[in-house]
């Protein structure tokens, strides 16, 4: 089975070997069909971890590999969704979604069909002809996710894609993300500051502690899968098990810190 692995990975930025490590001894495996969220205080190295998985940066020690082969740079099998939507505002919605397919050399008709399919999957089938600047923030993030999925990636790497959205839009996006994750059969890696988001979406949540960034807790979860099986999301989020897991994660995140207000539940 295809998997994306970080094995005993450490990271220092810059060339000074004496500089403090940003990440130390991180081992994490993401398989297709899994959804792993990474949560932790600001500066704990979450984005650095995602950038390693994406191949944007290389580890100082240890190994990043996909399907057993070392990752030596970004690749189309690992699609990235950023907090800022990173779309081309002067191009149409459809052109933005089709762009990676064009770069991959797909013929025009094929890329149009594929882009339309994923635009429909994110509920924007009527917006394909609009320029991106006419869309709302939530719509733009949906275009970004459709673009990422259009290339059929094995892995979807998301760095706080919902951070700028209002609470109601965010809840709708959670449900959409879960359906897209199921439809794409991708493995998802999500960086988030929201414990509730992490718990609701993931098959496991990983807590990173700072200084140097290291994994201090892994919490297996099944609420997202239960939502996909038809259970009510509000009922799931008010279950005792959900609330207890939220408290465990919040304690792990706050450990060693004086001010507990930095993390949103
Ligand atoms: N390109 C870089 N060069 C040097 N140091 C960096 C670089 N990128 C990040 N860092 C440092 O690495 C540490 C971890 O940063 P990172 O952005 O990975 O953390 P984070 O957990 O994603 O933070 P946040 O939650 O605030 O986004 C920080 O101390 C940061 O200053």
Automatic annotation (TrEMBL):
<dbReference type="InterPro" id="IPR003593">
    <property type="entry name" value="AAA+_ATPase"/>
</dbReference>
<protein>
    <submittedName>
        <fullName>ATP-binding cassette domain-containing protein</fullName>
    </submittedName>
</protein>
<dbReference type="GO" id="GO:0005524">
    <property type="term" value="F:ATP binding"/>
</dbReference>
<dbReference type="InterPro" id="IPR027417">
    <property type="entry name" value="P-loop_NTPase"/>
</dbReference>
<dbReference type="InterPro" id="IPR050166">
    <property type="entry name" value="ABC_transporter_ATP-bind"/>
</dbReference>
<keyword id="KW-0067">ATP-binding</keyword>
<comment type="similarity">
    <text>Belongs to the ABC transporter superfamily.</text>
</comment>
<keyword id="KW-0813">Transport</keyword>
<keyword id="KW-1003">Cell membrane</keyword>
<feature type="domain" description="ABC transporter">
    <location>
        <begin position="4"/>
        <end position="235"/>
    </location>
</feature>
<keyword id="KW-0997">Cell inner membrane</keyword>
<dbReference type="InterPro" id="IPR003439">
    <property type="entry name" value="ABC_transporter-like_ATP-bd"/>
</dbReference>
<keyword id="KW-0472">Membrane</keyword>
<dbReference type="InterPro" id="IPR017871">
    <property type="entry name" value="ABC_transporter-like_CS"/>
</dbReference>
<dbReference type="Pfam" id="PF00005">
    <property type="entry name" value="ABC_tran"/>
</dbReference>
<keyword id="KW-0547">Nucleotide-binding</keyword>
<keyword id="KW-1278">Translocase</keyword>
């Amino acid at each position: 089975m295809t998997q994306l692995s970080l094995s005993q990975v450490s990271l220092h930025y810059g060339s000074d070997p004496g500089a403090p490590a940003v990440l130390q001894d991180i081992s994490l495996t993401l398989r297709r069909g899994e959804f792993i969220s990474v949560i932790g205080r600001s500066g704990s190295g979450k984005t650095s971890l995602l950038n390693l998985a994406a191949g944007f940066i290389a580890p100082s020690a240890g190994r990043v590999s996909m399907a057993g082969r070392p990752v030596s740079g970004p690749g189309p099998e690992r699609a990235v969704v950023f907090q800022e939507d990173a779309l081309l505002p002067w191009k149409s919605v459809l052109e933005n979604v089709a762009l990676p397919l064009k770069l991959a050399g797909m013929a025009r008709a094929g890329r149009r069909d594929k882009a339309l399919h994923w635009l429909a999957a994110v509920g924007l089938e009527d917006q394909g002809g609009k320029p991106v600047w006419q869309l709302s923030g939530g719509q733009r993030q949906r275009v970004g996710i459709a673009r990422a999925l259009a290339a059929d990636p094995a892995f979807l790497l998301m760095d706080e894609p919902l951070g700028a959205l209002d609470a109601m839009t965010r809840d709708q996006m959670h449900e959409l993300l879960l359906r897209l994750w199921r439809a794409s059969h991708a493995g998802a890696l999500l960086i988030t500051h929201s414990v509730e988001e992490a718990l609701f979406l993931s098959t496991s949540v990983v807590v990173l502690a700072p200084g140097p960034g290291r994994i201090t807790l892994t919490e297996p979860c099944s609420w997202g899968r239960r939502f996909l099986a038809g259970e009510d999301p509000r009922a799931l989020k008010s279950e005792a098990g959900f609330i207890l897991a939220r408290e465990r994660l919040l304690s792990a995140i706050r450990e060693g810190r004086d001010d507990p207000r930095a993390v949103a539940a």
